[in-house]
Design goal:
Layout lengths: L4 H16 L4 E3 L5 H12 L4 E6 H5 L9 E5 L2 H11 L3 E3 L4 H16 L6 E4 L6 H12 L5 H4 L2 E4 L2 H9 L7 H9 L1
Parallel strand pairs: 1-2, 2-3, 4-5, 5-6
Helix pairs in contact: 1-2
Length: 183
């Protein structure tokens, strides 16, 4: 759940808001931590929850069996691909290494054009301030084009995130930019 109770509160509020707006949750399929809390809160608010979980985690008995749908896959790569296929956008709550892996893969795939979906950081209590600064630094150092920096939407509330997602216009992919430059 993280050290700060604000993380759990934000996860619950985000899940409840999504459910109340008729927006389903696609997530990693677990019953523990913030993942489980999000699923429980969305379900309690009458929302749809689709979990995608590798079989090894099912065998470890951490799968959330109360999901609207639970897809069991063989690998983490398949999990991320299915979650990408099923969702309309990505919202990262405060989290650890797995959250970072999924966030940066979603961002990378957006830049490459494998999807055209927004990626968001729910910056609860400034949790992601240093990461946001680092992403900005990558841009200043020339490793992220400014237009691709726009793929990462950072807000403090899910309401603000959803408003920004609604206005999201995907920037050109790397291949589109290369074609323009060679043009």
């Amino acid at each position: 759940m993280g050290a700060d109770p604000a993380y759990a509160e934000a996860a619950t509020a985000a899940a409840r808001t999504l459910a109340e707006r008729g927006i389903g949750v696609v997530y990693g399929g677990g019953r523990l931590g913030l993942m489980g809390l999000v699923a429980d809160a969305a379900l309690a608010a009458g929302g749809e929850v689709i979990g995608v979980i590798p079989d090894t985690l099912v065998q470890a008995e951490v799968a959330h069996t109360g999901c609207t749908e639970l897809h069991v896959v063989d690998t983490m790569h398949q999990r991320k691909q299915m979650m990408t296929d099923l969702c309309d956008g990505f919202i990262a709550l405060p989290g650890g290494v797995g959250t970072m892996d999924e966030l940066f893969e979603a961002m990378s795939w957006a830049v490459l054009g494998y999807h055209r979906k927004p990626c968001g950081l729910l910056n609860v209590g400034g949790y992601y301030d240093k990461l946001i600064a680092f992403v900005d630094e990558m841009g200043e150092a020339g490793f992220i084009r400014q237009r691709h920096r726009g793929n990462l939407i950072c807000t403090e509330t899910v309401e603000e995130m959803l408003a920004r997602f609604a206005d999201f216009v995907p920037p050109p992919t790397v291949m589109e930019i290369v074609r323009e430059d060679l043009g």
